Amino acid sequence: MALSESPLMTAGGLVRLTYGLGALFVPRFVAGRYAAAEPDSVMNLRGFGGQHIAIAIFTLLAARSRKMARPALLLNTGIEIGDMVAGGFEVRERGTRDPIAVGGVLLPLVGLTTWLTALIRLDR
Q: 27 lies in which domain range?
């Protein structure tokens, strides 16, 4: 399996890389738009961005190998599930009218769908 044969892994990895780079290098821009608005937690957002970058690079490299694709897809699936649970806690605390909290559930759901679809296609 070549990188070009796994467009979902490539697309998902690039989205995760883009978010990670934004969180790492321009966290004040990301905060309040694509993450909770917590101006005092720039260091946390930067660390979160670094983690996304590492996972994205692993995902993009793993897309080149059938042997590594499954672990990368399972890792990304687990991350999205964890993000959805965290988003659920935020919705419970902030309410359904908070767009960042709701987005914390819906965006990981899109990611989860992407990774599970790629996993199913990998088995074909």
A: 3-122
**How many structural domains are present in the chain?**
1
12-17, long-range: CB < 8 A, 24+ apart: 12/59, 12/76, 12/111, 12/114, 12/115, 12/118, 13/56, 13/57, 13/59, 13/60, 13/63, 14/56, 14/60, 15/111, 16/52, 16/55, 16/56, 16/59, 16/76, 17/52, 17/53, 17/56, 17/57, 17/60
pTM of the model: 0.86
Residues of the chain with pLDDT under 50: 1-4
